């Protein structure tokens, strides 16, 4: 599980560094929009108080702390599952991505009261109204990876 731990720490660090660097360092909180590579890539400040795409968003303190607890519970469950599975490296990488992203967004909720979303990618004449962050990408990639690589237990080897 060393590989999972390493990926988790790298994902968490990259997510938090990107949020602090862009939201605080570049002043996106005040500027609200920074054109990076128009018309394709923009930084757009969006405080997500709900789940994906702002679903169930509210200013409820209960929801905020429920989502923090849920992220922690899911992270623990995934860690235990992957450890018991005796995972191959790709499953460990996937778990590290998912857990690192989940904990990064949970820390945002603790620190700022909402998840800091800022990446906006638009392509091919289709306007994308949504913003996301590094943690969101990691969670998505990790979940897909767990689906693809679960059940790939190495014969005769114990989990690392």
Q: Can you lay out the helices and strands and say which pair or pack?
A:
Layout: H1 2-25, H2 28-31, E1 33-37, E2 41-48, H3 61-85, H4 89-112, E3 115-121, H5 134-149
Antiparallel strand pairs: 1-2, 2-3
Task: Describe the 3D structure.
This protein has 160 residues and is an alpha+beta fold. The chain has one domain. 58% of the residues lie in helices and 12% in strands. The protein has helices spanning 2-25, 28-31, 61-85, 89-112, 134-149; strands spanning 33-37, 41-48, 115-121. A 3-stranded antiparallel β-sheet has the order 1-2-3. Helix 3 (61-85) packs antiparallel against helix 4. It is globular, with a radius of gyration of 17 Å.
Quickly list its features.
three-stranded antiparallel beta sheet, 3 strands
